[in-house]
């Protein structure tokens, strides 16, 4: 039993590695128009006629910056968090870290500029996404400042928080799919109406990430070996739901990513 939490953690790490790689591929292919449908927010810049107002230009460029920098954040994390690279290839770790925190700042600023000039799909979403973007920028900035000051324990803590925020855009889609499949859409509004879950998901996609990050920053793995069967069972169930959501979203024809990726991967 003492080894089971570690096995579950390694399983989740493997699923996350594969899932985030495919998520990054999805962003690249859809943002470049290689898939059946491009992102509508980004597509407006290439429309005929082009945007006629400054706010439309700012929104388009901001979301484009968010896509580009976000792809770096999604794909570069295994290099940044590799203990082997950190110990044996310090220069690679340092430069990857600089690129990563730079991408965090640009992704956050780009997303915030889009929210400020265009807004999300609803006002509650605009507020929540603006808070998420603000925390993302804060984490990136603090990780950089502490690294420059050689306060490496604090730098590592803020880097973990930054990665927790990066996971948000991916977890948002996973949580929606898992909730709809396992509850039948309980609390989900119809049409433009907001249900209870629609409000909750606006914070569930990033606040729990921060709480988990804080647990590991403050405790490491010291308490995992002490988990009792109820906690281990809950952890295993959460890992199973996580893996299910990754597969359902990414590798099924009806998945948000799968319907764009599978035709390209198959062909």
Task: Please provide a brief summary of the model.
This protein has 267 residues and is mainly α. It is built from eleven helices and no strands. The relative contact order is 0.12.
Low-confidence stretches: none
Order of SSEs: HHHHHHHHHHH
Global shape: globular
* Number of continuous helical runs: 11
Q: What share of the residues does DSSP label as strand, in percent?
A: under 5%
Helix share of residues?
Answer: over 70%
Radius of gyration: 19 Å
Mean pLDDT: 89
Content-based structural category: mainly alpha
Query: How many β strands by DSSP?
Result: 0
Distance between the termini: 44 Å
Q: Biggest sheet, in brief?
A: none
If you had to describe this structure to a student in words, what would you say it looks like?
The chain has 267 residues and is mainly alpha-helical. Helices cover 76% and strands 0% of the residues. It has eleven helices and no strands. It has helices at residues 4-31, 40-43, 54-80, 83-88, 90-117, 123-148, 152-183, 196-204, 207-219, 229-250, 258-266. Helix 5 (90-117) runs antiparallel to helix 6 (123-148) and helix 7 crosses helix 9 (207-219). The longest helix has 32 residues, at 152-183. It is globular, with a radius of gyration of 19 Å. The termini are far apart. The model has no long low-confidence stretch (mean pLDDT 89).
């Amino acid at each position: 039993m003492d080894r089971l939490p570690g096995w579950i953690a390694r399983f989740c790490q493997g699923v996350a590695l594969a899932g985030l790689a495919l998520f990054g591929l999805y962003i690249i292919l859809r943002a470049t128009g290689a898939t059946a449908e491009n992102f509508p927010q980004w597509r407006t810049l290439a429309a005929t006629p082009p945007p006629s107002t400054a706010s439309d230009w700012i929104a388009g460029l901001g979301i484009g910056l968010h896509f580009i920098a976000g792809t770096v954040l999604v794909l570069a994390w295994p290099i940044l968090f590799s203990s082997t690279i950190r110990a044996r290839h310090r220069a690679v770790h340092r430069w990857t870290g600089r690129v990563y925190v730079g991408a965090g700042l640009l992704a956050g600023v780009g997303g915030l500029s889009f929210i400020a000039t265009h807004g999300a799909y609803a006002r509650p979403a605009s507020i929540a996404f603006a808070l998420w973007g603000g925390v993302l920028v804060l984490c990136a900035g603090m990780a950089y400042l502490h690294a420059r000051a050689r306060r490496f324990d604090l730098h590592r803590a803020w880097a973990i928080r930054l990665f927790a925020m990066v996971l948000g855009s991916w977890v948002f889609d996973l949580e929606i799919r898992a909730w709809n499949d396992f509850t039948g859409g309980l609390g989900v509004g119809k049409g433009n109406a907001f249900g209870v879950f629609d409000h909750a998901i606006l914070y569930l996609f990033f606040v729990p990430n921060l709480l988990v990050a804080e647990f590991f920053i403050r405790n490491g793995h010291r308490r995992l070996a002490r988990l009792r069967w109820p906690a281990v069972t809950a952890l295993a169930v959460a890992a199973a739901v996580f893996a299910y959501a990754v597969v359902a979203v990414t590798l099924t024809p009806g998945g948000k990513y799968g319907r764009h990726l599978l035709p390209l991967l198959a062909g």
